[in-house]
């Protein structure tokens, strides 16, 4: 079946650091990738949608300059949390879909900002 | 935009009993409704989905029903087992398999042995 790999699985870093999270589709071409954020005991909230080769579409309230998304190839999208602060601590999950396919989720990245 | 509500927020059932989780959506254009199961700290896993041209779909112990007129859909799990314990999310979206999912707030299901 379709596999989405997300790396790293867990990051702990100091406030002010920038953190990059990678999302890869391993056995299919992901025309669209989605980035979600999930706070403890809450639902998944869509942050942005990215299509390969074009700029990401951000949801209302998500800062484009803080959460940089790059979808440079059909198998890789990255999310960079710039100048991360404690309030950015969360579980970040990507998902990917190819043409005519449902979304497949990565394992998520737990980000802890000290 | 789309708004998805989900009830109950927590549900405890005895092993072997049935569990039902209900969701409502607001956008009549939504036509794809997946259900995800998420265990603590892990990825959401698709367990069943339904499109708006179908009223019911079943896969072994899991079934989903959709009432497009009333804009609500439900997940039914029969003969529950302890390994069914998890958080379940419904979602609504537009498109063949969904463009952007709007997730419900989730239901924490506990199956008691």
Question: What topology emerges from the helices and strands here?
Answer:
The complex is a heterodimer of chains A (114) and B (113).
Chain A: E1 4-7, E2 10-13, E3 19-25, E4 32-38, E5 45-51, E6 57-58, E7 67-73, E8 76-81, E9 90-97, E10 104-105, E11 109-113
Parallel strand pairs in A: 2-11
Antiparallel strand pairs in A: 1-3, 3-8, 4-5, 4-9, 5-6, 7-8, 9-10, 9-11
Chain B: E1 4-7, E2 10-14, E3 19-25, E4 32-38, E5 45-51, E6 56-59, E7 62-67, E8 72-77, E9 86-92, E10 102-103, E11 107-112
Order of helices and strands of chain B: EEEEEEEEEEE
**What oligomerization state is this entry in?**
heterodimer
Helical coverage of chain A, percent range: under 10%
Please tell me the overall pLDDT of chain B.
93
Spatial shape of chain A: globular
Description:
The complex is a heterodimer of chains A (114) and B (113). By secondary structure, chain A is an all-beta fold. In chain A, 0% of the residues lie in helices and 52% in strands. Chain A has strands spanning 4-7, 10-13, 19-25, 32-38, 45-51, 57-58, 67-73, 76-81, 90-97, 104-105, 109-113. In chain A, strands 2, 4, 5, 6, 9, 10 and 11 form a seven-stranded mixed sheet that branches. A four-stranded antiparallel sheet of chain A has the order 1-3-8-7, with no helix packed on it. The radius of gyration of chain A is 13 Å and the shape is globular. By secondary structure, chain B is an all-beta fold. Chain B is 0% helix and 54% strand. Chain B has no helices and eleven strands. Chain B has strands at 4-7, 10-14, 19-25, 32-38, 45-51, 56-59, 62-67, 72-77, 86-92, 102-103, 107-112. The mean pLDDT of chain B is 93. Chains A and B meet through strand 5, strand 9 and strand 10 of A and strand 5 and strand 10 of B.
Question: What does this entry show, briefly?
Answer:
Chain A is mostly beta strands and 114 residues long.
